[in-house]
Write a structure and sequence with these properties.
Elements lengths: L3 E10 L2 E11 L4 E5 L6 H8 L7 E6 L6 H4 L2 E4 L11 H11 L4 H14 L15 H13 L5 E5 L7 H16 L3 E5 L3 H7 L2 E6 L2 E7 H7 L4 E6 L9 E7 L2 E6 L5 H10 L4 E6 L4 H8 L6
Parallel strand pairs: 3-7, 3-8, 5-6, 6-7
Antiparallel strand pairs: 1-2, 1-4, 8-9, 10-12, 10-13, 11-12
Helix pairs in contact: 3-4, 3-5
């Protein structure tokens, strides 16, 4: 059973269509990357899933049911707009909000210590939130999001404002949640994090789907007819190569339409050239994103 099933969702504000016939699903044990330009409809989609607002039409099912109070205890949500009770200490805030999810104090405190240790925040557990940096506050809010071990986790820009060490920590915890069978929706502008973490990707623009599917299959579909090579020595003209250009320390060979990468590899070997790297050029998700969003990035 899908953790989230969205069917033909529509939502308009005045004369603007924010969500336009959106259909997708999220399975247990997978991370779905939700991407799109600002104003694409990502936040509206998340708010409808969480029942913060109603769609004009369409249907959302959470583990086969319409949203209800019992289901809310099985969901963890990290909003893009952060907000903490400034005068409470980190541990008091964690325990207070964990009680909203039905956790008893002893269980919550034990789990809180584990997560505080994982995130490098244990020594700050008795520090007031108003005394913490933005990044520290974000880690506390992330802990609050997952402390009750929700089956569905929705993360809106979880890496914003975090340094590389804390980013890696959050990334590892998300990967562990996926491995534990949790369903995760990850909404972010950081395309490299989507590539590192997500199993599938949903890109929306102006409220409707422009890309949806398995991440690896998606990248393969947008693959260019070129290869990246690094060799010892110089490369002379190679039949079937119509252009060569330096690209981050290697050479990109653009192939003629009727030439395959295997053909080029065979021709390099025939010449006795030492090949240190040879791979088919696959565009990054960021490049695909910019192309589909209609952004000129040349």
């Amino acid at each position: 059973m899908a953790a989230v099933e969205v069917n033909h969702l529509y939502k308009s504000y005045a004369d603007v269509t924010a969500v336009n016939d959106l259909t997708f699903s999220v399975e247990p044990g997978e991370v779905l990357g939700l991407i799109g330009p600002n104003g694409a409809g990502k936040s509206s989609t998340i708010k409808i899933i969480l029942d913060f607002m109603k769609p004009d039409s369409g249907e959302v099912k959470i583990f086969g049911q319409e949203m209800n109070e019992a289901l809310k205890d099985h969901i963890g949500y990290l909003p893009e707009e952060r907000g903490l009770y400034k005068k409470l200490t980190a541990i008091d805030l964690i325990l207070y909000l964990a009680s909203w999810k039905g956790m008893d104090k002893a269980t919550a405190e034990k789990k809180a210590d584990i997560l505080l240790e994982q995130t490098g925040m244990l020594e700050y557990k008795n520090k007031k939130n108003k005394e913490m940096s933005k990044g520290m506050g974000q880690l506390i809010q992330f802990i609050i999001t997952i402390i009750h071990e929700p089956d569905l986790v929705i993360l809106d820009e979880p890496f914003a404002g975090l340094d590389p060490v804390r980013t890696e920590t959050i990334k590892n915890i998300i990967a562990q949640l996926r491995d534990d069978g949790k369903a995760i929706i990850l909404s972010t502008h950081q395309m490299n994090k989507v590539e590192e973490l997500c199993d599938r990707v949903l890109m929306i623009n102006k409220g409707h789907t422009v890309l949806y599917g398995d991440l690896m299959e998606t990248k393969a579909k947008f693959r260019r007819n070129s290869v990246q090579v690094a060799v010892d020595g110089e490369l002379d003209d190679i039949p079937g190569v119509i252009e060569s250009k330096l690209n981050n320390g290697s050479i990109e060979l653009v192939l003629a339409p009727d030439t395959t990468p295997q053909t080029i590899l065979d021709r390099l070997r025939e010449r006795g050239i030492t090949i240190n790297r040879f791979e088919v050029t696959t565009p990054s998700l960021n490049e695909i994103f910019l192309d589909l969003a209609g952004v000129n990035h040349a």
